[in-house]
């Protein structure tokens, strides 16, 4: 069948209130792209927060890579919002004009180019989307901006940060957590009416050029517990208002690069619990860096009275089984 020209098709869709329907497939594809850029932005942010030993230029490079992802997120989110509602997403558009620009380091030419692209995209978006715009007919212009943005970032893609292949500063935190599970990795048994005293010790190891870019002022130890599997013998009436997870943290200052702290952890819910211990460092400016390392301990919380009852039941069952076997053997003998 003959289809109307694009201009007539757009007019008909607007008249019938079906402008958003015409772009359903496009919105679905853009949604997938938006998810990818969100994940990339999150990974860049995670990398930045863990790169304690990175040189300032590398940190700026990573920051700009994240800003590029956030910029593309803004463009895609604005397109989706405009197609679906006829209104641009104001929050996303505000990011386009308030994005951070780390001026503490002299950016390389590729980084400067990428920052320039972000500013150009912001300007283009502002021209296409005035504050009072409510017409979905600008979707074609937005798609042109999206295509142009991708091509611009490809041409201006920053190089790999130096930190990726050369670290000029080296800082390593090592942890020792006690109690620890045995060689069989069986969970640590703990009575539910008691608490686990978890001791965390560690050392900060520094390389040949310590504090070249930043130095360790203190260490943050974070502990989180979560219920993995509940015991089948748990009383159902006790499940209300019970605590199945906790999160604690302590900040300690190393002495001669050694530090130590402890946590008192309750495991009142019967079952298997996972305890995660993670270290981070705080620099001289108070910035927290998620350097790691991480350690995991598994705990089995039990009720002594229930366990005693279960042992008695098993013992009776074994005795009954032995008695039956002896009786059966006597019958055969006779």
TrEMBL record:
Residues 314-334 are annotated as: Disordered. It comes from the Eukaryota. The lineage of its organism: Eukaryota, Metazoa, Spiralia, Lophotrochozoa, Mollusca. InterPro entries: INTS7 (IPR033060), INTS7_C (IPR054519), INTS7_HB (IPR056517). One of its GO terms (biological process) is snRNA 3'-end processing. Residues 174-289 form the Integrator complex subunit 7 C-terminal domain. Residues 3-78 form the Integrator complex subunit 7 helical bundle domain. One of its GO terms (cellular component) is integrator complex. This is Integrator complex subunit 7. Residues 314-325 have a biased composition (Low complexity).
